[in-house]
Amino acid sequence: MRIFQISDFHLRGDGKLSFQKADTITAMNQTVEYFLKLKEYELPEFFVVTGDLSEGGTREGYEIVREGLRKLPRPCYIVPGNHDKRDFYLEMFDAETPVQDDIKPYICYTIDDKPVRVIVIDTSLPGCHYGGLSDEVAEWLEKKIAEYPEKPTLVFTHHPPFVTGLPAMDEGFGQADRLAAILNTHKNVRLCCGHMHTGMFTQWHGIPAVTCPPVAMQMEVDFRSKTGPDVTPEEAADNFKGGGDRFFLGNPAYLIHDLQGDQINTHYMIIPTGADYSGPWPFKYYEGEED
């Protein structure tokens, strides 16, 4: 069994480039076209998209994203990110968010009828760039993870709860220790995140964890702090926020989570679109827009 994870479309609905540089509509369309051309045996059981579907969470952006996702050759499930809005998810993506009434308005749900179990948890905090685990979601997750203690399980979130080493993105994660304690009650679990715009593979409190590369805007991997000795005067004058605040216009990419026996292997895959990797550019909004 295979699951494809894609992430971070940042699609605008007003025709503008995202962060003044990225044609995210084209990136999404190229990604969908790539998957439509795969052979039957190459396709996954389903797709999971780990958040930031629409830049600014606008209805217009979601309408474009919904049209694209519903062209995919397999079912698709989605996770909210910090740029998303829960009300639009529940209203516009009913098929992609099978949320039960006991946890609404949080976008949390499970997919139980496959050889790999999927648990989606909502780590978005309205108005915040960083994420966390609310008490409601934590209590829900404690119950859900205990239902199939032996079954290989993928837990999907937008925000990674661990330190990445990219200072601009390491803003903290609410109740990270509680999340680790819950996940460690399961014997075969992997944490699959978005948000970072680059692929990472790590162990966090003994839990295998990955972050998915993006459909749009490949993160510059830069470990410098905002005030580090290697920051140039030009960067400081341009309000450099530390590593993790700039991107290249790279090829879309995705992860394949593949079950072999009771072991889940994760493969990093690039979608060749001929991107020029220009940049790095800052994640900078248009004048008058909120950061």
TrEMBL record:
Q: Which UniProt keywords apply?
A: Hydrolase, Iron, Metal-binding
Q: Which GO terms describe its molecular function?
A: cyclic-nucleotide phosphodiesterase activity; metal ion binding
Name the residues that span the membrane. none
Q: Which InterPro entries match?
A: Calcineurin-like_PHP (IPR004843), CNP_phosphodiesterase-III (IPR050884), GpdQ/CpdA-like (IPR026575), GpdQ_beta-strand (IPR042281), GpdQ_catalytic (IPR042283), Metallo-depent_PP-like (IPR029052)
Q: Could you tell me which residue ranges the Calcineurin-like phosphoesterase domain spans?
A: 1-198
Can you tell me which family this protein belongs to?
A: Belongs to the cyclic nucleotide phosphodiesterase class-III family.
Q: What is this protein called?
A: Phosphodiesterase
